[in-house]
Amino acid sequence: MVDRLAFLHTVESNIAPFDAAAVAAGFDVSCHQVRPDLLARATDEGGVSPALEDDVAAALNKGLAEADLVLLTCSSIGAVADKMHSSGQAVLRTDQILADAVLADAIASSKATSVAVLVVAPSSVDPTTALFKARQGVMKADNVPLDVILVPKVWDHFLAGDMDRYLARLNEAIASFPSDNPTYSHIALAQASMAKAADGVDSGQASLWTIPSATAAYLSSLTQD
Question: Is the pTM higher than 0.85?
Answer without folding.
Answer: yes
